[in-house]
Specification:
The protein contains ten helices and no strands. The protein is mostly helical and 258 residues long.
């Protein structure tokens, strides 16, 4: 794949990946940092999506490891959500590879703005307003549907996936934020794994960029999960909001300027 990316750009992308790993492990939305970054250095849309997945899978794996060590991952739920996340992501990634590049780029920008606006204006429910945890069989059925649907979105596009999963698990299953973040990483890792496999088989992952970013994502993901376990949600949520607001302005400018 003949795509030239300078050493300086790779260093900047690694910094973005580490930041994204931290943010994504706690509140989701790391792709809102890395996907615009890889697009900004001039990668074609399909290559940008594939390369983004090539590095993101390492961050979600690191976060999942840390959450598992803390005992926050529901193993019985994970046995359902992991395979459904895989299936959904394979379907989404297969679909995006059928879209022509000239159609994909404006679609990516529109989707980024839609996700960014949603993340900016959403309000987390007060702790007392959370529904009671769903009964086990019902919880597994709901978890499977959430994993399938959002896994497909992740395979097709990606940014905001972790946040959508956290919202789904906290509102539909009554999970607290830390546990919802942990269960979200099970699906996130599955969907990232499926997506990067599909993109790699099609040759649209630029590994000379993805691998350095992956190392940074791994470190960021582990650190972010550690902060979530220790209760550092408030600070990072403010960082997410700032990043999202900045992206809304940037992407709106991109659409206006063409």
């Amino acid at each position: 794949m003949d795509v030239d990316v300078s050493t300086l750009h790779i260093i900047l992308l690694c910094l973005a990946a580490m930041t994204a790993g931290i943010v994504d492990a706690i509140a989701g939305g790391g792709g809102l940092i890395t996907l615009p970054a890889v697009l900004a250095v001039g990668l074609p849309p399909h290559v940008a999506l594939g390369t983004n997945k090539g590095q993101a899978v390492f961050g979600s794996f690191a976060a999942l490891m840390r959450f598992s060590r803390a005992g926050l991952v529901d193993g019985r739920l994970a046995r359902v959500t992991f395979p459904f996340g895989l299936v959904g992501a394979f379907a989404g990634a297969a679909l995006v590879l059928l879209v022509k590049p000239e159609v994909l780029k404006p679609l990516v920008l529109v989707l980024l703005i839609a996700v960014a606006v949603f993340l900016t204006f959403r309000k987390a429910p007060p702790p007392g307003d959370r529904p009671a945890p769903a009964p086990r069989p019902r919880a597994q059925a709901i978890g499977a549907l959430v994993a399938l649907g959002i896994g497909a979105y992740d395979g097709f596009f990606g940014p905001g996936t972790g946040t959508f999963l956290i919202i789904g698990f906290s509102t539909l299953l009554g999970h607290g934020l830390a546990r919802a973040s942990a269960d979200a990483k099970v699906v996130n890792f599955a969907s990232n794994l499926a997506s990067v496999t599909m993109f790699a088989l099609k040759g649209v992952v630029l590994w000379k960029v993805a691998l350095p970013m992956a190392a940074a994502q791994f470190a960021g993901g582990y650190l972010g999960a550690h902060l979530a376990v220790k209760g550092g949600d408030t600070l990072v949520r403010k960082v997410v909001l700032g990043v999202v607001l900045a992206l809304v302005l940037k992407l709106a400018r991109d659409l206006v300027m063409g």
